[in-house]
From TrEMBL:
<dbReference type="GO" id="GO:0071949">
    <property type="term" value="F:FAD binding"/>
</dbReference>
<keyword id="KW-0560">Oxidoreductase</keyword>
<dbReference type="GO" id="GO:0004497">
    <property type="term" value="F:monooxygenase activity"/>
</dbReference>
<dbReference type="InterPro" id="IPR036188">
    <property type="entry name" value="FAD/NAD-bd_sf"/>
</dbReference>
<dbReference type="Pfam" id="PF01494">
    <property type="entry name" value="FAD_binding_3"/>
</dbReference>
<feature type="domain" description="FAD-binding">
    <location>
        <begin position="5"/>
        <end position="330"/>
    </location>
</feature>
<dbReference type="InterPro" id="IPR002938">
    <property type="entry name" value="FAD-bd"/>
</dbReference>
<dbReference type="InterPro" id="IPR050493">
    <property type="entry name" value="FAD-dep_Monooxygenase_BioMet"/>
</dbReference>
<keyword id="KW-0503">Monooxygenase</keyword>
<protein>
    <submittedName>
        <fullName>FAD-dependent monooxygenase</fullName>
    </submittedName>
</protein>
Length: 390
C-alpha cells in the first residue's frame, strides 16, 4: 500500500527513511525541530553494508563521490609511531569515509525541497487503528504512518515506551575535529592506553580525526577543547600534531559516548522507531549511521506491498531488532575493551596485533565482520516520480 508518512527527525536516518518511502510511492513529510541544519560530529565511515543500502536508495554514485576510501581500522599504530598492522596493498579499502555534513547533504538533495520542514517540534502523538495524529508547534496532522527518527533522546520512544530506560553513559568521551591540510594523510588508528586516535581522510584537503578517551563522568567540558586534545596526545607520532595544528578550534566538538539499552520493540501500531531512537550505539564498529540507513530500506521494503501498516511494521521490527541490538552490544564491547584497558591489557592487545601478519588480518577481518558487512538490502520497487533530486 501507499499513504502519507510523517518522519520525525531530519538526521541521516530520518532523511534516508524519507528517500526510501518516496521510492515506493509514499507521500512523506520530515519534521525537524532545529531551524537550520548544522554539523553534528565531523566525519564518519561507512562499511560495505551501509554502502549497499545507499545504493538501494539510488545514491551509489553520489555516495562514492562524496567520500574517500580508507583503511583506518586496518592500519594500527602505537603512540610512538610503531606500526602494529599495515594496511594491505593491492586491495580496495573496505570503508568509505564521509564528512558527516556531506552525507547529510546528499540525502537532502535526494528529496524535493518541500519535503523537509525545519523549526517544527513534535509535542505529542495519538493513534487509532486508522491513523496517527501528530501534534507539533505548527499545528497538528494525521498520517498513515509515523517514523520516529528523532535521535538518542527520542520523544517518540518516550511516548511509546515511557518505562524504557534512557541512554546510558559508557564511561568514555570523544573529541572530533576536521583538519584542512594538504598533507598526504592515510587513514589509521593509534591505540594508546585507555584511549585511541582515529584518522580518516574525508575529502581532498580534509581529514576527520577523533580522540576517544576514558572518562569518569559525562558533561565535563573545557574552555579550550583543542588544547585539551593536544595535551592528551602530546608526543604522539606524526601526522597527529600536524592535524591538530591544521584544525580550527571551531571545528572541534566534544561528545560523551552513550548507547541505548535494548528496547522490547521498535514498532507499535502505526508508529516505528528508526536509527538512534531505536538502537543508539557507540561508534566502535562505525555502524550508527549505517544501521539507520539499513533500517530505512527494510522499513520501506516491508511497506512496499499491500500489507497493512501495523503488520508491515511488525515485520520490520522482527528483522531489525535482533541485528541492530547485536551490533550495539558488539560495538559497546569493542569500545570498552580499548577504553578500559590498563597497562597489561594494552600491552597484550598491542602484542596480539603485532604478531598477526597484516596479510592474515586482511583475510581474517572480512570473515570476522562478515555477519555485519555482508548484509544485503531488500530490493525496493521504485516509482518513476520518486527518483533522487538535486
Amino acid at each position: 500500500m501507499t499513504g502519507h508518512a510523517i518522519v520525525i527527525g531530519g538526521g541521516i536516518g530520518g532523511l534516508a527513511a524519507a528517500v526510501a518511502l518516496r521510492r515506493i510511492g509514499w507521500q512523506v513529510e520530515v519534521l525537524e525541530r532545529v531551524h537550520a541544519f548544522g554539523e553534528v560530529g565531523a566525519g564518519l565511515s561507512q562499511s560495505p553494508n551501509a554502502m549497499r543500502a545507499l545504493a538501494e536508495l539510488g545514491l551509489a554514485e553520489q555516495a562514492e563521490a562524496a567520500s574517500m576510501p580508507t583503511w583506518a581500522t586496518h592500519a594500527m599504530r602505537l603512540p610512538s609511531g610503531r606500526h602494529l598492522m599495515h594496511a594491505p596493498t593491492g586491495q580496495n579499502p573496505p570503508l568509505r569515509a564521509f564528512r558527516r555534513a556531506a552525507l547529510h547533504r546528499l540525502l537532502r538533495q535526494a528529496l524535493p525541497q518541500d519535503v523537509v520542514h525545519t523549526g517544527v517540534e513534535v509535542t505529542g502523538l495519538a493513534q487509532d487503528s486508522e491513523k496517527v495524529t501528530v501534534t507539533h508547534t505548527a499545528g497538528r496532522q494525521d498520517a498513515d504512518l509515523v517514523v520516529g527518527a528523532d535521535g538518542i533522546h527520542s520523544l517518540t520512544r518516550r511516548l511509546l515506551w515511557p518505562q524504557a530506560p534512557g541512554p546510558r553513559f559508557l564511561g568514555y568521551t570523544a573529541w572530533v575535529g576536521l583538519a584542512g591540510t594538504s598533507l598526504p594523510v592515510r587513514g589509521s588508528m593509534t591505540l594508546g592506553r585507555g584511549c585511541y586516535f582515529l584518522i580518516h581522510p574525508v575529502a581532498p584537503g580534509q581529514v576527520y580525526w577523533a580522540l576517544g578517551s576514558a572518562a569518569d563522568q559525562s558533561g565535563v567540558r573545557f574552555d579550550d577543547e583543542l588544547e585539551q586534545v593536544r595535551r592528551r596526545v602530546a608526543g604522539w607520532h606524526d601526522p597527529i600534531p600536524a592535524l591538530l595544528q591544521a584544525t580550527p578550534p571551531e571545528q572541534v566538538r566534544h561528545l560523551d559516548i552513550h548507547d541505548l539499552p535494548d528496547l522490547p520493540a521498535y514498532a507499535s501500531g502505526r508508529i516505528a522507531l528508526l536509527g538512534d531512537a531505536a538502537h543508539a550505539m557507540s561508534p566502535d564498529r562505525g555502524q550508527g549511521a549505517g544501521q539507520s540507513i539499513e533500517d530505512a530500506v527494510v522499513l520501506a521494503a516491508a511497506l512496499a506491498d499491500n500489507t497493512p501498516v501495523p503488520a508491515a511494521l511488525a515485520a520490520y521490527d522482527a528483522q531489525r531488532r535482533p541485528r541492530t541490538q547485536a551490533t550495539a552490544r558488539n560495538a559497546r564491547q569493542a569500545g570498552l575493551q580499548v577504553i578500559n584497558a590498563g597497562s597489561t591489557a594494552h600491552a597484550l592487545i598491542a602484542l596480539a596485533l603485532r604478531l598477526t601478519p597484516s596479510t592474515l588480518w586482511a583475510r581474517l577481518a572480512p570473515r570476522t565482520l562478515g555477519p555485519l558487512w555482508d548484509w544485503t538490502p531488500p530490493t525496493l520497487p521504485t516509482m518513476p516520480d520518486a527518483l533522487p533530486h538535486g
